[in-house]
Amino acid sequence: xxxxxxxxxxxxxxxxxxxxxxxxxxxxxxxxxxDAMQRVREIDAAEVxxxxxxxxxxxxxxVREESEFASGHLPRAIPLGKGILERDVEERFPDPNTPxxxxxxxxxxxxxxxxNLQKMGYGNVLxxxxxxxxxxxxxxxxxxx
Length: 145
Known about the structure:
The chain is α/β, with parallel strands linked by helices. It has seven helices and seven strands; from the N terminus they run E-H-H-E-H-E-H-E-H-E-H-E-H-E. Strand 5 (100-103), helix 6 and strand 6 form a beta-alpha-beta unit.
């Protein structure tokens, strides 16, 4: 496992980051995300980092694809991709009161996933605003497998 902090390769400007995005999100997808965000509580990267530094119990779930997780993720994160999250969450976290923090690449997929978990009865779910991208931009450490 390799732990890294934000490096020079991450110091690109906003326009460069935007041009590196795969494609813009569709209006219907954004409407779906906006709807979910009306019900989902968010937490920012700085607060997640503070919780991690406290070394208390923390259930941090990376809802991105396996390949995204393998290329870099937050320390202590559990890979449970959005495609299998709803199917497998009860096995991993049977208590619906377990505090869960979800993140994805930019905060949209984790908001959708958090909304679904709430619909399944999980009452202590947060989505990390800005996702992995925001975490890296803040200069916080990441890991690769």
